[in-house]
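Lab notebook page, bench 4
Experiment: in silico fold of construct C2
Operator: M.H.
Input chain length: 415 residues
Purpose: comparison with the prior construct
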Amino acid sequence: MRKILVLLVVVMLTFAYPFEVSRGQAPRGFAQTRRDLKLFYEQSMKVHGIVGSGMMLIQDGRVVAQEFYGLADRDKGTAVTENTIFHWASITKTLTGIAIMQLRDQGKISLDDPIIKYLPELNRIHNPHGSMGEVRLKHLLSHSAGLRNPTWPWGGDKPWHPFEPREWSQIVAMLPYTEIEFKPGSRFSYSNPGVIFLGRVIEIVSGEDFEVYIDKNIFKPLEMHRSYFDRTPPHLLRDRAAGYYLRDGQLTPAPFDPDTGITVSNGGLNASLSDMVKYLNFLLGDPPRQTLYDQILKRSTLLEMLNPQLPIEAGGLPEQTGQDRKDSIGLSFLLEENFGMKFYGHYGEQAGFVSHFYIRPESRTAYVIAFNTNATTSKPTDGGVVQNTLGLDREIKNYLFSRIFTLFNAPAAPR
């Protein structure tokens, strides 16, 4: 009888502390830490005026905590769940980088190839620092080609304007008015056009539309069936989140379900939180599934993408703050040091959505978060809070890194 009671206690503890399993160790008593996180998350959403948000925490391939707040669509009254489809904006850039590395591993391209080998139209760009032949694919992957940040810097703020340029010809028309601002490879400067050029290379080399290529070579193998680009298919519309802007207490809807046109490789991704977990697990790696993962991208190639290429100076990114940062750029991925720990990931901001994911390889821990409200208020609320979604994103990041990620000391990431 005593043995039975002991066994029951063990089973109860296992369910009470689900982190304490053979894969990924977490401290006993995490339940209270988990409750504190829930309270902090919900209170933060309220004070910053967020309509809806979702977050997933992953440890060694498993979702160990998840939080959902508010509404995916205020007019429809639909709540945020793990199936809610958010717009991930610039996180799309990591998919573009992976696709380029796939083609490189297949011997179809080289990272040292000049971009004009595939896009001779780019010879129209003004380059006071030399020949356009000096701009390589690797420079576009590391945001060091010297290209400007915005895709379309002239207008675009009228209700009747397209959400983004629709045709390649529109990009080409801008090339004579574009310049290389510094010697390629000499420093980091975030550039959306550079990633659009990479998307065009993927189409030319593979012979497929960018969206088709990514679906066949990343989404399908990872069973990301709720992931797609631009306009939502009818069977997923009920789960599509709406985006909102919050300006000094005034909430306005962003364009719903927009088409990113020719810029799709730069920011067209829509996906559910549950699908993003599958993507993060692929990035984390997992020995039981590594054969499948290696068919998508060899682990050694992914690790190559995480090698620092150039430092990111203070203020080099919109979400970056502080003068003592030790951030750098890999190949498509952003690399950071926080609280003595190393992370990689990416952020997104477009159409009222703000998103982020971070991965700590050493402990095989990661999280992904999305907000469907981009608050950029300048006046404090009655409670003295300046509502700002990028600031909120940093607050949650620092909370997780200082109070949650420091608890995990799991096995090193698989090689």
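Observations: Confidence is low (pLDDT under 50) at residues 1-25. The longest strand covers residues 62-73.
Next step: discuss at group meeting.
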